[in-house]
Amino acid sequence: MKDNIIAGLDIGSTAIRLVVGQRAVGEAGERLQIIGAVDAPAQGISRGVVNSIEDATSAISGCLEKAERIVGVPISSVWVGINGPNIRCEKSRGIVAVGKSDGEITEEDVSRAVEAAQALSVPPNYEILHVIPINFTVDSQVDIKDPIGMTGIRLEVEALIIQGLSNQIKNLTKAIYRTGLDIEDLVLSPLAAAEAVMSAKQKELGSALVNIGSTTTSLAVFEEGDLLHTAVLPIGSEHITADVAIGLRCPINLAERIKIEYGSANPENFSKKDLIDISDLASEEDMPDESMQVSRKYVAEIIEARVEEIFEKVDQEFKKIDRSGMLPAGVFLIGGGSKLPNIVDSAKANLRLPACLGANKKIDSVIDKINGINFLTALGLVAWGNQLTKGKGRFNLNWPGGAVVGKTAEKVKKWFSSLIP
After folding, report:
1. What are the residue boundaries of the structural domains of the chain, listed by start?
2. CA distances (Å), origin 78, targets 11, 43, 276
3. Whole-number mean pLDDT of the chain?
4. Helices 166-177 and 405-419: crossing angle, nearest 10°?
5. Fold of the 88-165 domain
6. Are the C-beta atoms of residues 117 and 93 closer than 8 Å to each other?
7. Euclidean distance between CA atoms 200 and 194, whole angstroms
């Protein structure tokens, strides 16, 4: 039973979410079913980075205990999403000579080519998270997806190297190991979320996933089935709340309530006569003195300005890879920030692309909670883990993009174990 359990842990700045899946064998063969999904308030984490290991460990432990009570099975290992603003993304090439005398390309040749691509100069405080092959060249034949079995003399690979700050990775893994959990692998959050949200056809045509969290916005761009680019931007929905608080000169928790209950990203939907009485909300937040009416249009104008800034920064990332306004399958919005009314219209206007809210399209479950837009990253981590443990590789290949990080995680684990008496 325990061997069939796959858990995805999404550690955000405001909430920690854990989704638990189980591989079950039925008449239709082996399939993944979700048996539990829980969330708990996050502590000790800011902008996707651990700033207090003690608090983060406590919050993760609370979420883990809650999950184990629901599923009734001990959870021993997790696939973890990583989402810090210091993530770097670089392209690299690796070239090797084919080993066999008859020129047939084997998995070993491909592995050597990928290893050669890793030989780029990584800054001393960074380490490689994922090595994702984009395409191969055999002699003069370009754009090959899977070269194994082909014949040639020279094999070349173009790979995307995703790097993270070493100390941030170590702090995150330390906080998780303290709870007694093992880490299967660290996976960049937007990559994992795309597993649950986007179909192979959409990745083939050209599409992007944009995850608007509380303090960061992460994105992943796909084309021809391959990952083209990824980035994490240090801006999120909490910045919208802060703008509302400053604009209305009200406390931050009241601004959050106003944003959630009356906010919109499109001020054109309201006239200057549309007023909202916030005295009830103020009394609920123990601020009885805040008895005033505010213009709904004014609130929407404040929100619109910050939402436009978020999408401008996303579009700047698209421009880096010459895909601004050129992704036919459009943009999928996920994360708590994308719940804001009219944000999809703002995305369409600012990015000049089709846009919609992301939804779980691949994994069946009787638990409605996992279809919520907040749970898609944790759900994607379960899907990612299921694919890899079944032996199916990422991106048409037979190895995980994040296998490199396993070495580092193992070192941290051994070091941490040595501290325990």
Report:
1. 2-84+167-192+361-419, 88-165, 200-360
2. 12, 19, 45
3. 87
4. 50
5. Dna Ligase; domain 1 (3.30.1490)
6. yes
7. 10
For the entire predicted model, the pTM comes to 0.87
Looking at the DSSP bridge assignments, the partners of residue 50 are 45
For the stretch 264-322, pLDDT in tens is: 999 999 988 888 888 778 777 776 655 578 899 999 999 999 999 999 999 999 999 99
Q: Show the 3-state SS of 70-110.
A: HHCCCCCEEEEEECCCCCEEEEEEEEEECCCCCCECCHHHH
Measured distance CA(408)–CA(410) in Å, rounded: 5
The pair of structure tokens assigned to 207 is: 């599409």
Q: Cα dist. 91→114, 119, 399 in Å?
A: 12, 11, 19
Do 2-84+167-192+361-419 and 200-360 show the same overall fold? yes
pLDDT in tens, 22-44: 887 766 677 888 999 999 999 99
Q: What is the pLDDT of residues 227-244, one digit of tens each?
A: 999 999 999 999 999 999
Output the CA–CA distances (angstroms, integers) from residue 213 to 23, 99, 219, 234, in the order listed: 30, 47, 11, 10
Report which secondary-structure segment, H or E, holds 381: helix 376-389
Secondary structure letter of residue 151 according to DSSP: B
Phi, psi at 174, each rounded to 5°: -65, -45
The fourth-level CATH superfamily of domain 2-84+167-192+361-419 is ATPase, nucleotide binding domain (3.30.420.40)
What confidence score (pLDDT) does residue 398 get?
A: 34
